[in-house]
Amino acid sequence: MGTFLADHFETLFDRIKAGLDRRLGLPLLRGKFKHILGYDLNLENPVTLNEKIQWLKFNTTGNDYVRASDKLEMPHFVRELIGDEMCEGIFTEILLETHDPDTIDFEALPRSYVIKPSHGSGWLRIVTQADPPDADDLRRQCKSWLRRKYGHRQFEWPNLQIKPRIMVEELLDCPGQLGARDVKLHMLDGKIRRVMLMADRFGQIRSTRINQDWTAFRGQPDPPFEEVMGWADMQEIAIAIGQHFSYVRVDFLSTPTRFALNELTFFSESGLNPMSYENDIELGNQLVLPPSPPA
Questions:
Q1: Residues contacting 269, CB < 8 A, separation 6+
Q2: Which of 65, 94, 223, 240 could form an S-S bond across to 158 if both were Cys, CB 3.0 to 4.6 Å?
Q3: In the CATH hierarchy, which fold is given to the domain comprising 61-89+173-265?
Q4: pLDDT of amino acid 234
């Protein structure tokens, strides 16, 4: 009962807090922005990439954003967007989806998998042979996810419109780490402008930014792993998706033998991504914002 009430209270509190912040001119968001990035947020005339991502939160609409953000719906949406041929073999296998965690037969699942909700970000549990599931604990976690809403705190509106479901998908694994490596392509006006690599995200995380030729971006550490299998295909897919949005981050999972499109993100790091002001300005100059929607 305690967790049940806490989940509902958290969602209610986040909704009320976000509503008040917006009515008062976003003092909480502006304060957080300046604390993390060191300069004042300008939503009237955004210049940096972080400012423009914040602007997009309040000036984008449409079901495409919701479908693309929905972890279960995203593969269907991307197929419609770029075609079946380009999507051949690029998604992980969905082993199960449900609205009711009590219906999950954990004994029928493989020894390794990922379980997560369709509407959150960073909410997941990895099950492996070395770390077998506690069925009761996982059911409690799934019920908690379904009771909670993701998106109020940082004004990420598409997630608030996703119907919460639980999904189980295959686990892509790399030797020497839990899970796959991450390759994240930032698409600005349909062009690859930034690539982030992450290794061992659930352990001793190592990350860097790179150029498209797989060399380190200026001032960044060397890439934590060699050029991945399918790198050319990843770029082609990201560019095809990027034609449809002013800004989108296209995230892939990578192993030595395959890659998979993992998710699409429209408000990377919620527009609070620490970087030098010089880089923030440079990237911001490469993103032309669409016209504001009608009031």
A1: none
A2: 65
A3: D-amino Acid Aminotransferase; Chain A, domain 1 (3.30.470)
A4: 98
